[in-house]
């Protein structure tokens, strides 16, 4: 019988993490490597990707860097194909890349709407479509979609973001239904504000952040490692009976 260390490890697995140049994605990539996986990271920021790659390699695992803009259907497909050429198959897909262009509905630009839906919702769909066949062939796989509490509750001036994350939650359920018979578990994690560069950009102003913090029973925003820990659990054998779930990691925000 396996030990708890085996159950929570991903030794020998091959993982693809999008948005791997900074924030949650960088922390997820490093933690998966620390737990035994070889990792491919996707992003637009070459310097950030290089920094993450160094952190992954410092654990003794390999890191394959793919520069791509997931707002582009073509580049998203090329990223998946590149990972498949490198690894042969991907065991763990972490759809973490996300963007936000805060604006009220009356002020929002359609170009920002399209870009947000492309990165936050279409890219996870395309990557799963391209990588799941390899998981099906080997009879196992894990897909973790990084959603948001904004996919569960409405947030002023975040129409496109909320729509994209709510859609990602439903996409997670459909993936779980369709891929479950092949022993592929698909789940989403839905954090509150996380103190990443994007989180600080949107919520760094104390005047803006104070009302949000007041709605969080724990009284604080999250750190990237706290999301990465949950992603690792969902990527590991310890979560093999969990699929189709959107797990909130929000300090109690949605408990109110």
Mean pLDDT across all residues, rounded? 96
The class by helix and strand makeup works out as: alpha/beta
Percentage of residues in DSSP E strands: 5-15%
Instruction: Please give the largest β-sheet.
Output: 7 strands, parallel
Report strand order across the widest sheet. Answer: 3-2-1-4-5-6-7
Order of helices and strands: HEHEHEHEHEHEHHHE
**End-to-end C-alpha gap:** 41 Å
Helix coverage percent: 40-55%
**Quick one: how many beta strands?**
7
Low-confidence stretches: none
Oligomeric state: single chain
Radius of gyration: 17 Å
The gross shape turns out to be: globular
Number of helices: 9
Provide a short characterization of the protein structure.
The protein has 256 residues and is of the alpha/beta class. The chain is built from 9 helices and 7 strands, in the order αβαβαβαβαβαβαααβ. Strands 3-2-1-4-5-6-7 form a 7-stranded parallel β-sheet, with helices on both faces.
Keywords:
256 residues, alpha/beta, seven-stranded parallel β-sheet, 7 strands, 15% strand, globular
Task: Give a description of the structure.
With 256 residues, the chain is an alpha/beta fold. It has helices at 4-7, 23-34, 46-57, 73-87, 110-138, 159-179, 197-203, 206-214, 224-235, and strands spanning 14-18, 38-43, 63-67, 92-95, 141-146, 184-191, 246-249. The protein has a 7-stranded parallel sheet with strand order 3-2-1-4-5-6-7, with helices on both faces. The longest helix has 29 residues, at 110-138. The chain is globular, with a radius of gyration of 17 Å.
